[in-house]
Specification:
mainly beta, nine-stranded antiparallel β-sheet, 74% strand
Length: 156
């Protein structure tokens, strides 16, 4: 994922991003997402942050059955984080993608996480990511999927 972001003022910025992903279990070999939008910081303090993003996403997809698709989507994203104690952080983000090309299709993704600092440069993170896809790429796939993640993070 690559993203260029330019600050417009103290609380707002604009961004352009490109993302490549693959997930054969979801029915696609390769997916390219191009994002264009803006970010607005609602709360931006040392211990609490709340931001929202809105924009446009263009998606090109090569599916496992050989078909190709192109979609235009609207994107709304909100993220909140809180430093509860000196070494304990909570975070929750929610993303809604509305497909303009295929009416009635949307994807809702959310991820709560907890990060604990283990030292000055090492942290431990646990998270749960839920994905609801109204119209999965493969007919018969579940509409809801999830992913548990545990990570060790290093700061350099």
């Amino acid at each position: 994922m690559a993203r260029y972001q330019r600050k417009l003022n103290k609380i707002a910025s604009a961004f352009l991003g490109e993302q490549a992903e693959g997930d054969k279990f979801s029915g696609f070999d390769m997916r390219y997402n191009t994002d264009l939008g803006g970010t607005y910081h609602i709360i931006d303090s040392d211990k609490n942050q709340l931001l929202t993003e809105g924009g446009y996403r263009f998606t090109k997809e090569k599916r496992i059955d050989g078909k190709k698709s192109k979609d235009s989507k609207g994107r709304v994203y909100i993220e909140g984080s809180r430093q509860h104690f000196k070494h304990l952080f909570y975070k929750l983000w929610v993303e809604y993608l509305h497909n303009f090309t295929d009416k009635g299709d949307f994807v809702l993704t959310f991820e709560p996480s907890l990060t604990v600092e283990l030292g000055s440069f090492l942290s431990f993170k646990v998270s749960y990511k839920g994905i609801f896809d109204k119209k999965p790429t493969i007919v018969g796939n579940k509409k809801y999927d999830y992913l548990y993640t545990t990570s060790l993070l290093a700061k350099f």
